[in-house]
Design brief:
Blueprint (H helix, E strand, L loop, with lengths): L2 E16 L4 E17 L3 E5 L6 H8 L7 E6 L2 E2 L5 H7 E4 L13 H11 L4 H14 L4 H4 L9 H13 L5 E5 L7 H18 L2 E5 L3 H7 L2 E6 L2 E7 H6 L4 H8 L40 H5 L5 E2 L5 E2 L14
Parallel strand pairs: 3-8, 3-9, 6-7, 7-8
Antiparallel strand pairs: 1-2, 1-4, 4-5, 9-10, 10-12, 11-12
Length: 326
């Protein structure tokens, strides 16, 4: 498959300011030298603990936050400040908070039509597109077009947000915890809707979530992040059945199971993630890793290709790295 999105060396450090003159005293290393590709027509799931850089990566891709370093190539064209307007026609984002994402003073049909109007589409055509998209996401336009966000349930508002994201006919949709605030029955309906819309509109997804079961259901490949770095990347079935990085193994072992034979006897990980202001030297996971050795403290592992087409950043998977398990 052809890569639709190519990210190389994406970095974002947020300065912490203190003192009378608000000078920068430290930086939070939110995203640090992240590189990956998203193929056309696939769904890339991004998982990791809170604070690992998932949402910041999404905002960097959308240019909602300026990157410190790195390049983004979309559809074979490098993305810069001058091409941001073109980018927004091709890439859209659905946020976690469905109510805060909508203007409370606009009817939902107008919220959907607003983007096409700004991009030069005539009013009647923009409103007609809004009605069609409401129908596509399972909301009857005759009932919902004139309603305001406070008159809708959480699931209905999120459907409106999906319709609004599709109004400019994008090729890539970034879903940042788009179903995490919904109850399980509505979550399942929205997930099935997303799968149907992907096939209908020929979309590509970047799906960010804490729920590993949801990511497994919807994703083709999974990218695991820890403290601003990618630790594992690969096909969803291989990662869930045979994880290679110790952090991925710990994440999956924490998923609740209905099988009584898979009882959790001891915690898969101990302690909290290190402070992103002063991350550990070498491998950032070494302070919680049961297999850490001196080489892990001295050298930062790089993403190393493995036999299934994925990549893992671990000294145990790097021949000649100096780790006894390599």
């Amino acid at each position: 498959m052809t890569p639709l999105l190519v990210v190389d060396g994406l970095t974002k450090h947020f300065p912490l300011r203190s003192g009378l003159f608000k000078r920068s005293s430290a930086v939070v290393q939110a995203v640090d030298n992240v590189s990956f590709e998203v193929n056309a027509g696939e769904t890339l799931g991004i998982v990791g603990e809170s604070g690992c850089g998932k949402s910041t990566t999404a905002r960097l891709l959308m240019h909602l936050v300026p990157a410190d370093h790195g390049t983004i190539v979309f559809g074979g064209t490098p993305v810069g400040a001058s091409s941001r307007r073109v980018l927004y026609r091709q890439m859209q984002m659905v946020f976690q908070d469905s109510y805060a994402s909508l203007n409370p003073r606009l009817p939902v049909a107008m919220s959907i039509a607003f983007g096409p109007l700004v991009h030069g589409i005539a009013g009647p055509a923009a409103r007609a597109r809004a009605m069609d998209l409401l129908q596509a996401v399972g909301l009857d336009p005759a009932l919902f077009a004139s309603r305001y966000p406070h008159e809708l349930s959480g699931g209905q508002r999120q459907r409106v947000n999906v319709a609004r994201a599709l109004a400019l006919e994008p090729r890539l949709l970034i879903l940042d915890e788009a179903v995490s605030a919904l109850d399980k029955s509505i979550e399942a309906q929205v997930l099935n809707l997303l799968i149907d819309l992907k096939a209908r509109f020929d979309l590509t997804y970047i799906f960010i979530s804490h729920d590993l079961n949801v990511v497994r259901f919807i994703s083709d490949r999974v990218m695991v992040m820890y403290l601003g770095k990618i630790v594992e990347l690969g096909p969803v079935d291989r990662i869930y059945r045979h994880p290679k990085h110790p952090y991925t193994t710990a994440l999956l072992s924490a998923v609740p199971s209905m099988d009584p034979r898979r009882r959790t006897v001891k915690a898969p990980l101990s302690g909290d993630p290190p402070n992103p202001i002063n991350p550990p030297s070498g491998c950032r996971f070494r302070t919680r890793c049961p297999f850490a050795e001196p080489i892990c403290q001295e050298v930062s592992p790089v993403l190393n290709m493995v036999e299934d087409g994925g990549a893992v950043a671990c000294h145990m998977l790097m021949p000649g790295s100096g780790h006894t398990r390599a």
